[in-house]
Amino acid sequence: MYLSFIDTTERQVVNQTPFGQAIAAIAAQAADLLHDAGHPFGWHDGGCRILAEALQTWSEGTLQLGCSGRDQAGPPSHFFAVLETQPGMPSLCIDADGLALEHEFLEKIRFFEMSHESIIAVYPGDAPASAEIIRDPDLSARVAALCSERIGPFQGWRADLLQRGLAAGQEYVADSAADAERMAAIDGMRL
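and the corresponding structure tokens:
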């Protein structure tokens, strides 16, 4: 079960959930707000933190600010919103492309950015960020209001997100364990 996947022919993310589709549509609409505010970039090349903070505001703090980077020591290179489904299970990651489990999210970044990002689930607020990543609290508030206007309050989506995220996460964990067992069996057969 995938929450989203990459259509490599069209070079785009395909959302498998109504929530992911709704967020991607809002991000597309809100891109005009980004440019109207004088920002010469999009959600994936400087505006990611503006959108992530908008989602955090819209969720009234339920979503946390997450970030990824090319290594743990360097500054974050992408911001997104994070929803933990259950301790020990993959978290949900939300950005302008929609909704994904952690591994789907990393695959997307690696495909589009051609980089080897590692995920940091929750952004430590005092950590430095890349100078290319801009904060604009006023614009974040406007995008949060747009979310409320277009798709209602976050709490109306939360239960479905947790259910879908937990089911997809459990399937991913089970598949990963089965893959590890198969690889161990193959390694055991080698001379």
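(Above: one complete record from the training split.) The mean pLDDT is 88.
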